[in-house]
Design a protein that fits this description.
- It contains four helices and 19 strands.
- The protein is mostly beta strands and about 250 residues long.
- It folds into two domains: about 80 residues, no CATH class; about 150 residues, no CATH class.
- About 30% of the residues are buried.
- The mean pLDDT is about 90.
């Protein structure tokens, strides 16, 4: 595939243009709403474009993009969908994680969870959990809830299907990584999936029911007031019903 078109325009899209497209489209494919996407020129097509203009570009999942390439999806349909994106209609973008290995390994900062039914429980509520497959030959079911540091939900996972809120400032998916930002350079959540048997929370800054979580690649800190923190580094939770159970004073 050529890295330039006939006008010499490179395929690399400026970050501010990509961010504008993501937010306008609701962070997912404008046609079907899937949360893994590609940036597509449609007015005009890339071969005729002289610049990367956000107004002439949109988000399409790989399947819809291939339909465009095979000419089984018309530019007229793309234009209509761009004007009324599926994710904006539904209020979220969504996708399905591919977890088949039992148990699935989950890393959150400095903690590793393996074969725990409930990874983290806050005030009696499982905010991260695994359940056995409903039927033989089906995947392990992962569910979780992530919020930002104000407590507003940004990512909800139910039985491997994630839904990302359309009101987020920015949600970016690149390969197996999904990143949530509150503002430019301000990451509230970054998740990397390694199907079929692992998921890594590379960064987290959230609050749930009065409990604050803050973590990077090598640590996880927990606080009950946002000022005094207890840090976990290099800890493992293997087997059992609950990995970490937290009860706040609220």
């Amino acid at each position: 595939m050529s890295k330039k078109n006939r006008h010499g325009l490179k395929r690399a899209i400026p970050e501010d243009v990509k961010r504008e497209i993501r937010r306008r489209c609701g962070f997912g494919c404008v046609v079907c709403g899937l949360g893994y996407y590609e940036y597509e020129h449609f007015n005009p097509d890339f071969k005729d474009a002289k610049e990367h203009s956000a107004e002439g570009m949109t988000l399409l999942c790989s399947q819809c993009n291939q339909k465009r390439a095979r000419k089984t999806l018309s530019v007229e349909t793309v234009v209509l969908a761009n004007g009324n994106p599926k994710c904006k209609q539904a209020g979220f973008a969504s996708e399905r994680y591919d977890f088949w290995t039992d148990p699935v390994e989950v890393k959150i900062g400095g903690l590793t969870f393996l074969d725990c039914a409930a990874l983290i429980r806050v005030n009696g509520v499982d905010i991260l959990s695994f359940r056995a497959p409903e039927n033989e030959g089906e995947p392990v079911r992962f569910s979780g809830f992530f919020s930002d540091n104000s407590g507003d939900g940004i990512l909800n996972i139910v039985d491997n299907v994630w839904h990302a809120g359309g009101n987020s400032w920015d949600i970016e998916t690149v390969g197996p990584v999904i990143t949530f930002r509150r503002a430019l350079g301000d990451i509230s959540l970054k998740i990397r999936v390694k199907p079929p048997g692992a998921i890594v929370v590379e960064k987290i800054d959230m609050v749930y029911d009065g409990v604050f979580f803050r973590g990077g690649e090598n640590f996880l800190s927990i606080s009950f007031n946002g000022r005094d923190w207890q840090k976990f580094i290099g800890c493992n939770a293997i087997g059992g019903d609950v990995g970490i159970s937290i009860r706040s004073a609220n």
